[in-house]
Amino acid sequence: MSRSPTTNEEDIEARLKNAEPASNRSRMQKDRAFRWLCIAIATVSVLVLVALLTSIVVQGVPVISWTLLSGTPEPEPSEAGMFPALMGTIWICSLCALITLPIGVATAVLLEEFKPRTKVAAWSYSLIQLNISNLAGVPSVVYGILGLTAFVSMFSLFGNATQPGAAVWEWGATYYDQFSNLGSDPFLMMSDEVDERYFLVPVENRTNPPTVPTEGMMAYENSVAGLVPVEVHVADAMGDLPTDPEVLATSIDSAAVPGRISEKAWYYFQLPLGRGVLAGALTLMLVILPVIIISTQEALRAVPSSLRDGALGIGATPWQVVWNVTLPSAIPGIMTGSILAMSRAIGETAPILIIAGIVYIRTSPQHLMDSYTVMPLQIYNWTSRPQDEFHSLAAGGIVILLGILLSFNAVAVLIRHRMQKPLS
Amino acid sequence: MKRESIFHLMIALVAITLGSRSVSAQNSGLLGRVEIDGSSTVYPISEAAASGFTRAFPKVKVNVGVSGTGGGFKRFTVGQTDISDASRPIKATEFEAAKDAGVDFFELPVAYDGLTLVVHKGNNWVDHLTIDEIKKIFTSSGAAKTWAEVRQGWPNNPIQIFAPGTDSGTFDYFKEVVAGDDGSLRSDMSTSEDDNVLVTGVSGSPNAIGFFGVAYYEENKDKLKSVAIVNPELKEPVLPTAATIEKGTYAPFSRPLFIYINARSFRRPEVRQFVAYYLKNAADLATQTGYVPLPKSVYAEAMNHCRQGKTGTHYLTKDMEKRSGAVTEIYTTETLVN
């Protein structure tokens, strides 16, 4: 850095003078040998990749079926599918991209384009820079543990040290006390004569004491048409039971203790975040943020300074320079970094295993706090089963995962292609 | 290829119509969710139960996690989960943690697992092993390096050992039976959390020995040979089969698998229904997933425990000492400690 260009040139000249004169032939030979070495190394790595891909495709493609795509995990391999895991992966990765890209790009722009003027600011900038470059090398399991304390239980700031992740503040949930009628208790052997029916009593506050069944209490029944009001009767299970089957079907044991359940709307939100989709996406954000920041910085650095100088010269503010000149020309480079980062996020298992841990789930996430599973977890689960059929299902899952990865990348490549403009 | 995919599509359509029919016919009224976590050994049984149950009660969400027996109990004893899968009984420390957090629970055995010792298919010298010989092979104090050191007349080849990971309930159980509470297993074994890796390891070397649940042996019979274990009481070698595990003659390596149910969650109708489904179908679910059903009387006793609210564990004494023995003897009301 300290050397001026002239000394550099002199240096090279001196070195060229000192270099031993070699015959033209041996120089050419060395050149050729080096080229063959490069070709050989490239061929070996491409061959390994081709072998891996072929073995996965050969194993996986025959089991790919509509069932595998749209089904739920089942104990019978021929009926098993990975729809919940597929949806979980799409949710997690889209959320993660939505959160990470703006934050990562903004950080990189701040560090690259708005250089500090004061000493203190410069010092804090370099501290941030050092942190980011070190964070890129941290194993992802560590981020999983960090995510568990930071997002799932939020450092127990909301005062629930005994039950990490349980909702303290929430929005969008309706609570009910669920009673079963006398006929449906599986531990009273009379289920055959009376229809099983379940009644819901709305609860104002989730911390209310359990509802005590009272005669003539209004309850709702969950049916195809939604919640239907029903009048329930109260009977003593140990004493005489009503004989009218209609009445018996709507009778609740006087000593019954209801189960508190909740219906959550699509906009349901809680603090701390719990083991939900959002906590998972935020944890993956931690994993890929350093990669995105660093690659964005590189892309911004690659924009020739003559462009910035030109824009500043015609009177643009620094903000206008960034928004109209630097960022648009850096987008192809930013997209390359983001593609790599997102591919990592899709395949990441360790942090998700710590945050979610759930492998059998039948539904796709319904709201940001819902429990979920992702494809790598489902694949891992299938590979560890004894039955061979599950192993080929896992291979099919890998092919689907690859497909999703490629389609994510295709979108990014498309954006990159659209944005690419000659710089001069 | 094309014909096949159309065939798959038809199967899917049939499945969807069948599924929707059962939805409308069944109990769509019951809502709620059941949270399960714990042992990877019990997981297939719980998955099968969850799958069958949600066919009958489609609006109930059943989530099953795999954190290992210890990890499952960690969440269970603070009340985070409704049901904990366990491949060994609850430990005194976990029991006390549950007590401190005010968590009462039901302990329900659901199936047997026969811990199977396997050798390479071409291994023609090992016909049976006694407990003492197993100790020689697996404990750090026994430390037999070659097969000749285990029994006279066996070849002078080095033994290669493949064992499940130290976090698994299977490892814990094997260690307790073979090395006792104070002893330790050898540290120079190849270990893996994935039992399929162990299968590959043992089937790849003629001098190898390993152990895992009976389901993995049943699926890999063509590559492996199971070893008969000399029953300490009968003094004769017994092979692990469904019959010997159920009768209890495959000792001491047949172990019961459990589910633990939070008593507070058990009040919820959806958890009650799920547990009832689990217990009623446990024998079928066990067979379907490669395990061995328990005697019917044990399931009936478990039903009784639930109905009468008998919470607590059978595998600890009042002084928090471990209790061991056959399920049929231990799983009674008299031994219940709460």
UniProtKB/TrEMBL annotation, chain A:
InterPro entries listed in its UniProt record: MetI-like (IPR000515), MetI-like_sf (IPR035906)
SUPFAM superfamilies per record: MetI-like (SSF161098)
Sequence ranges assigned to domain ABC transmembrane type-1 in this UniProt record: 86-411
Gene Ontology CC annotations of this record: plasma membrane
A single GO BP: transmembrane transport
Topology versus the membrane: Multi-pass membrane protein
Organism superkingdom: Bacteria
Region (Disordered): 1-24
Compartments (UniProt record): Cell membrane
TM region(s), chain numbering: 36-69, 89-111, 132-158, 276-294, 345-363, 390-415
Broad class of the protein's primary localization: membrane
This protein's UniProt keywords: Membrane, Transmembrane, Transmembrane helix, Transport
Pfam families to which the protein is assigned, alphabetical: BPD_transp_1
Family (UniProt): Belongs to the binding-protein-dependent transport system permease family.
Protein name: Phosphate transport system permease protein PstA
Organism: Novipirellula artificiosorum
Gene label: pstA_1
From TrEMBL, chain B:
Signal peptide span: 1-25
GO MF annotation list: phosphate ion binding
InterPro entries: PBP_domain (IPR024370), Phos-bd (IPR011862), Phosphate_ABC_transporter (IPR050811)
Keywords on record: Phosphate transport, Signal, Transport
Matching SUPFAM superfamilies: Periplasmic binding protein-like II
GO BP of this protein: phosphate ion transport
Annotated PBP domain residues: 28-279
Family as reported in the entry's similarity comment: Belongs to the PstS family.
NCBIfam families, per the entry: ptsS_2
Function, in words: Involved in the system for phosphate transport across the cytoplasmic membrane.
Annotated protein name in UniProt: Phosphate-binding protein
Name of the encoding gene: pstS_1
